[in-house]
Amino acid sequence: MTLVLFAHGAGAPSSSAWMRRWRKLLGAVGDVVSFDYPYMRAGRKRPDPHETLVEAHDKALARARKDHARVVLAGKSMGGRIGCHLALRRQIDALVCLGYPLLSPAGKMRDEVLVQLRTPILFVQGTRDPLCPLELLEEVRARMQTRHALYVIETGDHSLVAAKRWLARVGKTQAQIESEAIDAITSFMR
């Protein structure tokens, strides 16, 4: 059985509606376990220092890993980025980043870890995500040495929510868009 260790983003805990919905969706890929970083458990808004986040992610992996043959680190935004850093230290089968934060809120490029990766990675990105302009991601992907893929959600924002007008125009629902994204994740995992 595949373990999918699912990490939250900077602004919402694993109990948020978005995380609960995606945890259920990711159940198609494997046994999903989510966790909260220390700052979130303590009720603080500001994320912990980088090393504290990586250590917390590593401890969550150690707790969840026991009977699983394969391990996938999935994460929303910051959780995906921290999972990438952990993949430099631990044997991981794959990474799935939902809304990767290529740019910091201050606009600093955060691509070093991606270029260093040896773990296969799938980016699920929206075309309206200000933290990951797709043209910048393509430049980074051209420098990456590991197997990587990109699944694009047309008009999707940083939370992968497509614009309502676009959904109406193409005759789809957000649930259908998310189901198609899970199909892409499942295909990538094969």
Strand element count: 6
Cα-atom Rg, whole angstroms? Answer: 16 Å
What is the CATH class designation?
Alpha Beta
> Quick one: CATH superfamily?
Alpha/Beta hydrolase fold, catalytic domain
Low-confidence stretches: none
Number of domains: 1
What does this molecule look like?
The protein has 190 residues and is α/β, with parallel strands linked by helices. It has one domain: 3-Layer(aba) Sandwich (Rossmann fold). The chain has a 6-stranded parallel β-sheet with strand order 2-1-3-4-5-6, sandwiched between helices. Helix 3 crosses helix 4. The longest helix is centred in the C-terminal third of the chain and has 16 residues. It is globular. 35% of the residues are buried. The mean pLDDT is 97.
Compact description:
By secondary structure, the protein is α/β, with parallel strands linked by helices. It is built from 8 helices and 6 strands, in the order βαβααβαβαβαβαα. The protein has a 6-stranded parallel beta sheet, sandwiched between helices.
What attributes does this structure have?
190 residues, alpha/beta, Rossmann fold, six-stranded parallel β-sheet, 8 helices, 39% helix, 18% strand, globular
Secondary structure elements and their pairing?
Blueprint: E1 2-7, H1 17-26, E2 31-35, H2 38-41, H3 50-64, E3 70-76, H4 78-87, E4 94-98, H5 112-116, E5 121-126, H6 134-141, E6 148-153, H7 164-170, H8 174-189
Parallel strand pairs: 1-2, 1-3, 3-4, 4-5, 5-6
Helix pairs in contact: 3-4
